[in-house]
C-alpha cells in the first residue's frame, strides 16, 4: 500500500476513481464530443489527467480529444518566492479550440493564475481548469476559477495521486495526509 509512518489515508484508490468518473461526467456534459485539448501540468497533474482522459474517451463517440503538456515551476530555488516560471510550453495550437488545464492540486493558485494568463494570450475558444484536490478554499488570492474540482477543501500536507513529498510519493494510488 505504501503508507509511511506518520501518515493516514484520507482518500482511497476507489474514492479517487469514483471522483474521476464524476468529474468526467461534468466535463462531458459541458463539451460532449466537441474537440477538446487537455493540457497537463507536469509533473503532478499527469496521474489525474491520464485517468480523466481515459474516462472522457469512454464517454465520447468521436476521437477529438488532444493531450499536451506544460511544465511550470513555482517553488523557489534562488528565485523570488512568488515567481512562477514556465519551463516547457505547449506544442499544440489552441487558438479557437476548447482547452482544459488539468493539475493535481490547487494550493496557492499562483501557478494556475500564471498558466491561465499565459494560455489566454493564445486565444482559445474556452479555457477551463480541473484539479483533483482544492486546498485553497474560496478566500485566497489570486481568484482563479476552478471549473472542475474532485475533492474540495482537503487540508494538510498531502501526498499521493500526483502530490509529492520532496519528489517522492506521487505515484501512490491513494491520498495520504502526513501527520
From TrEMBL:
Pfam families on file: Pribosyltran
GO cellular component terms listed in the entry, alphabetical order: cytosol
Reactions listed under catalytic activity: IMP + diphosphate = hypoxanthine + 5-phospho-alpha-D-ribose 1-diphosphate; GMP + diphosphate = guanine + 5-phospho-alpha-D-ribose 1-diphosphate
Protein's UniProt keywords contain RNA-binding: no
Matching InterPro entries: HGPRT, PRTase-like, PRTase_dom
Record carries keyword Transferase: yes
GO-annotated biological processes: GMP salvage; guanine salvage; hypoxanthine metabolic process; IMP salvage
Keywords, in A-Z order: Glycosyltransferase, Transferase
Domain Phosphoribosyltransferase residue range list: 10-163
Protein name, entry field: Hypoxanthine phosphoribosyltransferase
Amino acid at each position: 500500500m505504501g503508507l509511511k509512518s506518520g501518515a493516514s489515508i484520507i482518500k482511497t484508490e476507489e474514492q479517487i476513481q469514483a471522483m474521476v468518473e464524476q468529474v468526467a461526467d461534468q466535463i462531458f456534459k459541458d463539451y460532449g464530443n466537441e474537440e477538446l485539448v487537455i493540457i497537463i501540468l507536469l509533473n503532478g497533474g499527469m496521474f489525474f489527467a491520464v485517468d480523466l482522459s481515459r474516462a472522457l474517451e469512454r464517454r465520447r463517440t468521436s476521437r477529438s480529444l488532444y493531450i499536451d503538456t506544460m511544465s511550470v515551476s513555482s517553488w523557489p530555488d534562488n528565485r523570488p518566492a512568488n515567481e512562477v516560471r514556465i519551463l516547457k510550453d505547449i506544442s499544440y495550437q489552441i487558438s479557437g479550440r476548447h482547452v482544459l488545464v488539468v493539475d493535481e492540486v490547487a494550493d496557492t493558485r499562483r501557478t494556475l493564475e500564471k498558466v491561465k494568463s499565459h494560455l489566454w494570450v493564445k486565444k482559445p475558444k474556452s479555457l477551463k481548469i480541473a484539479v483533483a484536490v482544492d486546498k485553497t478554499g474560496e478566500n485566497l488570492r489570486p481568484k482563479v476559477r476552478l471549473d472542475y474540482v474532485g475533492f474540495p477543501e482537503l487540508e494538510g500536507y498531502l501526498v499521493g495521486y500526483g502530490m509529492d513529498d520532496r519528489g517522492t510519493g506521487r505515484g501512490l494510488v491513494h491520498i495520504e495526509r502526513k501527520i
